[in-house]
């Protein structure tokens, strides 16, 4: 067979494998195979699937690799499999899995003889080759990023083929919790999952907040690690985002309490998609908490529960037309008492604090949106645009339009 014909068949096979992975019905697949090439035969009744690589977002942002690098890596795995084919007597089909933020390689292995294939050995060789290629292409080893290779159980039908790929893909999505160089059966990758509930972790977040306020760094480190260990054992994405939500609420309250300007940094640190592994997230979160501790030591007076609750209330209702009397009523104290205590503990009046918060939110909207000034004023709880502009200039020394012109991305 000439080279052109061989390349044509390989291209058709890759297309067929892609279609089969992504849920194409079997009768339609047969029609496509017949239309493409009469010589094209793929047996889905006696094979294995292997899924290897890393997520696309890490491939691009963490390793700074491009499409040419990916093609080189794909070719390196292909050449490896050519040599393994001869040793272990199997046929292979390969496919680039470029969807759902992936940059993975799928390999279909079909035995040529009745001998049992050493799939764990083949998968391990693929994993090592990929890891080597990533390091060589980037010339640096990322501390939290590894190639994970998962393989299926023996596949006995086309329907089983698709369900096996689904299991591989779902398991590979969870490598965030088990990021380390490894190759294993997909079912074994998640066999140690534990049932962890949000109600069990919320007290740990509360302890973390108290230890941060007390400046107990080692306790903080231990609690953060325990939270991450629980998430790691659960391998539960929804639970992880629920905990991030709890951490965000805690940090935003502290941000207001210490009158910091860390909201943007909090949002960035808690953006889970940027991390390769839960250990990387843990390190970044603890560094943020250390920064809070440093500013906390500069905060002269302790903040009472009354003022913490007041700050929480303001943070929830700043978009509304709230008054000192309304807040005092919600706190079950008199307006004069609340005003006096707030001024003593925070160093500013409550109305000033509310306006400062509103202007801080307005600055974000001016930079990140194209909303009109009047719309921003309303979203920040100020019905009167002229009053909003006056307060904005008092606190920033410039008009809203000027601030947007200078700072808008």
Automatic annotation (TrEMBL):
Keyword DNA-binding: yes
DNA-binding as UniProt keyword: yes
Every HTH araC/xylS-type domain range: 308-406
Cross-referenced InterPro entries: Homeodomain-like_sf (IPR009057), HTH_AraC (IPR018060)
Pfam families per the UniProt record, alphabetical: HTH_18
Gene3D superfamilies membership: Homeodomain-like
The entry's keywords: DNA-binding, Transcription, Transcription regulation
Single GO term (MF): DNA-binding transcription factor activity
PANTHER family: ARAC-FAMILY TRANSCRIPTIONAL REGULATOR, HTH-TYPE TRANSCRIPTIONAL REGULATOR EXSA
Protein name, UniProt field: Helix-turn-helix domain-containing protein
Species this chain originates from: Dielma fastidiosa
């Amino acid at each position: 067979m000439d080279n052109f014909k061989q390349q044509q068949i390989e291209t058709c096979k890759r297309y067929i494998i892609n279609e089969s992975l992504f849920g194409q019905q079997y009768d339609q697949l047969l029609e496509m195979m017949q239309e493409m090439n009469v010589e094209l035969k793929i047996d889905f009744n006696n094979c294995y699937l292997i899924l290897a690589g890393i997520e696309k977002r890490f491939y691009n942002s963490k390793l700074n690799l491009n499409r040419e690098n990916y093609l080189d890596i794909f070719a390196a795995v292909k050449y490896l499999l050519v040599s393994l084919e001869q040793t272990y007597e199997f046929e292979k089909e390969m496919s680039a899995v470029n969807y759902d933020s992936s940059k993975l390689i799928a390999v279909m292995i079909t035995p040529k003889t009745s001998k049992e294939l050493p799939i764990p050995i083949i998968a391990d060789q693929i994993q090592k080759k990929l890891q080597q290629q990533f390091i060589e292409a980037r010339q640096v080893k990322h501390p939290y990023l590894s190639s994970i290779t998962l393989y299926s159980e023996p596949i006995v039908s086309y329907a089983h083929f698709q369900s096996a790929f689904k299991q591989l893909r779902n398991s590979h999505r969870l490598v965030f919790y088990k990021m380390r160089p490894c190759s294993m059966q997909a079912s074994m990758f998640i066999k140690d999952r534990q049932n962890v509930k949000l109600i069990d972790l919320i007290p740990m977040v509360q302890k973390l907040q108290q230890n941060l306020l007390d400046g107990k760094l080692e306790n903080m480190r231990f609690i953060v690690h325990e939270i991450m260990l629980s998430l790691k054992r659960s391998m539960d994405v929804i639970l992880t985002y629920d905990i991030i939500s709890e951490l965000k609420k805690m940090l935003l309250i502290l941000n207001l309490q210490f009158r910091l300007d860390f909201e943007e940094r909090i949002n960035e640190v808690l953006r889970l998609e940027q991390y390769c592994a839960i250990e990387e997230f843990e390190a970044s979160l603890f560094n943020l908490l250390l920064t809070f501790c440093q500013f906390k030591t500069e905060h002269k007076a302790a903040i009472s529960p009354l003022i913490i609750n007041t700050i929480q209330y303001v943070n929830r209702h700043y978009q509304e037309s709230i008054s000192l009397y309304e807040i005092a009523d919600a706190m079950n104290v008199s307006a004069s008492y609340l005003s006096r205590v707030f001024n003593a503990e925070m160093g500013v009046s409550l109305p000033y604090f509310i306006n400062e918060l509103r202007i801080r939110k307005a600055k974000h909207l001016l930079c990140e949106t194209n909303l009109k000034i009047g719309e921003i004023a309303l979203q920040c709880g100020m019905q009167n645009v002229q009053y909003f502009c006056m307060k904005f200039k008092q606190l920033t020394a410039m008009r809203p339009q000027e601030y947007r012109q200078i700072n808008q991305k």
